[in-house]
Structures are given as C-alpha cells and as structure tokens.
C-alpha cells in the first residue's frame, strides 16, 4: 500500500534580501513548487521542506542564523518539526 505525502508550504515575503533564502530552499528541495504572487512567494512540497543554514549562507554570502527565518516568512502549512542552529524542517507530524 502506498502512502500519499501531504503537502507542506511556506509563504515568504518577496524582497531582495529574501531571494537568497528562496534560492537556498530550492537548492535543498529540488521537488518544490514555487509560485510568485505580488509581494509573496508560495513554496510547497510533498512531505517536507528542509532549510539548511550552510546552503542559505552560501546563497546570501554571509553568516545566517536560523532565527532570521522568522523575519522572512508570512505563514506556513505544516509543523516546525526541527529547528536548531543548522537546520529547519517543516512537515506534518501526523
């Protein structure tokens, strides 16, 4: 029996400073669906979305603390199942 993965999503305010974050999320999650709306980028994936600090730092060219993620997001669908200094994972727990 196959199990269908539920969609999770992150809505990020579209701005110059968030472009590197969005590029990093795309890099770490190649199966994403990304939609650009006026002032907003909607990111969705089946199962989970992973955000790695090292990938974000490589994209933006400076140190990045995962706490800065709160400044970029507008909303999310799923649970923040992991959030530490190196990685954030959004997925449904149940």
From TrEMBL:
<comment type="similarity">
    <text>Belongs to the TmoD/XamoD family.</text>
</comment>
<dbReference type="InterPro" id="IPR003454">
    <property type="entry name" value="MOase_MmoB_DmpM"/>
</dbReference>
<keyword id="KW-0503">Monooxygenase</keyword>
<dbReference type="GO" id="GO:0004497">
    <property type="term" value="F:monooxygenase activity"/>
</dbReference>
<protein>
    <submittedName>
        <fullName>Monooxygenase</fullName>
    </submittedName>
</protein>
<dbReference type="Pfam" id="PF02406">
    <property type="entry name" value="MmoB_DmpM"/>
</dbReference>
<keyword id="KW-0560">Oxidoreductase</keyword>
<dbReference type="InterPro" id="IPR036889">
    <property type="entry name" value="mOase_MmoB_DmpM_sf"/>
</dbReference>
């Amino acid at each position: 029996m196959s199990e269908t993965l539920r969609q999770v999503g992150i809505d990020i305010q579209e701005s110059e400073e968030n472009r590197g974050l969005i590029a990093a999320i795309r890099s770490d999650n190649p199966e994403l669906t990304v939609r650009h709306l006026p002032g907003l980028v909607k990111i969705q994936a089946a199962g989970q979305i992973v955000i790695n600090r090292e990938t974000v730092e490589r994209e933006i060219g400076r140190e990045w603390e995962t706490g800065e993620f709160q400044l970029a997001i507008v909303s999310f669908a799923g649970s923040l199942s992991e959030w530490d200094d190196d990685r954030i994972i959004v997925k449904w727990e149940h």
